[in-house]
Specification:
Layout: E1 2-6, E2 9-11, E3 17-24, E4 32-38, E5 45-50, E6 57-59, E7 67-72, E8 77-82, E9 91-99, E10 102-105, E11 109-113
Parallel strand pairs: 2-11
Antiparallel strand pairs: 1-3, 3-8, 4-5, 4-9, 5-6, 7-8, 9-10, 9-11
């Protein structure tokens, strides 16, 4: 099983970034996929979630209207499109696959929002 995030980096306030999470080794389409983040000195928090099959989405209040989660089951990939980024969005962003009692986490990708 592999869950690999990419797309992080340094971006100026107000900028955009798209994160990708490529999965392998399990039946991707049947797993709910989520993005979490952990900022400096903070606990890990749920950012966005997309369900399996019907792709229902949920977002943390802090990112609603700015972030969009999507998935491409043909590519076993989930995305997080981030816009209007602010310094408080600085964090390591993690991807998680969930089905029943199974959780698979990626290693994380750093996003830094700074001028």
């Amino acid at each position: 099983v592999q869950v690999v995030e990419s797309g992080g980096g340094l971006v100026q306030p107000g900028g955009t970034l798209r994160l990708s999470c490529a999965a392998s080794g399990f039946t991707f389409y049947s797993y709910h996929m989520s993005w979490y983040r952990q900022g400096p000195g903070k606990e890990r928090e749920l950012v966005a979630r997309i369900s399996s099959v019907v792709s229902n989405t949920n977002y943390a209040d802090s990112v609603k209207g700015r972030f969009t989660i999507s998935r491409d089951n043909s590519k076993n990939t989930v995305y997080l499109q981030m816009s209007s980024l602010q310094p408080e969005d600085t964090a390591v962003y993690y991807c998680k696959a969930t089905r029943g009692g199974d959780d698979y986490w990626g290693q994380g990708t750093q996003v830094t929002v700074s001028s």
